[in-house]
Hints:
33% of the residues lie in helices and 23% in strands. The chain is an alpha/beta fold. It is globular, with a radius of gyration of 19 Å.
Amino acid sequence: MAPCAIGIDIGGTHLRAAVVSADGTILRRARISSSRDPAVVLTRCLALIADLRGPDVSAIGIGVPGQVDAAMRAVLSGGYVDLSGFDFAGLIEADARLPVTLENDAAMALLGEAAVGAAKGIAHAVMLTIGTGIGGAVLDGGHLLRGKGMAGQLGHIVVDPQGRPCVCGRIGCVETVSSGTAFGVHLAEAGLPSDTRAQDLLDRSDDPTAQAVLRRWAGPLRAAIDTLVAVCNPQMVVIGGGAGHGAVAAMAQLASRPSWFSAPVVAAQLGD
């Protein structure tokens, strides 16, 4: 029997889990509602593991939004689900009696894309995940770029020093203007319905209001990517997350400028 792993994605709305084979095939999956209480999240994750595990499962990987020290298996910043200061990985490991890896969720997404997705066979890649916020990770020579422990917070590249305040404490981070949340803000400011999708605006190529919203949303993201390409010199930039495909399509409509620095920008293949 080939060994498999359980992957768990901790989100603000749902906790999602799946049994994944070595070639990336999802064999079994389950999900349950999330909670802001870390103890409740722990209990529900253990229930997902109990529901999915079998004799083929040999390890567990957990993706967490925010700053994570993977070497210490510690969550350093809280979000909707605040696991900072909570030995989440250790408690899961003690109960499940399986080795546990804890990592930032965007870093997990990049490792998945490099193993079996859009960046398969790529040693140098950058990934941005566009959702409620913007996550990021950098693959350098086949290894995650760590810096002194948690490099890759790419949503906090500043694109407008006179811009909107960010939750990180800075002003004008790309997350404040190009995330899924920011897309909703742009819609409201333009007087458009809150349920409007990026594809709806892309389909309205002759509507100045629709095109202005797309430019305000995708333009700063393109600028952030241009900076990352100059700094990291990747072979590829992968855009994932729930709003990833819409962001890639919106950026494709922007006029490009010749530059010393370039890399293809592609949508993630593995979904969000």
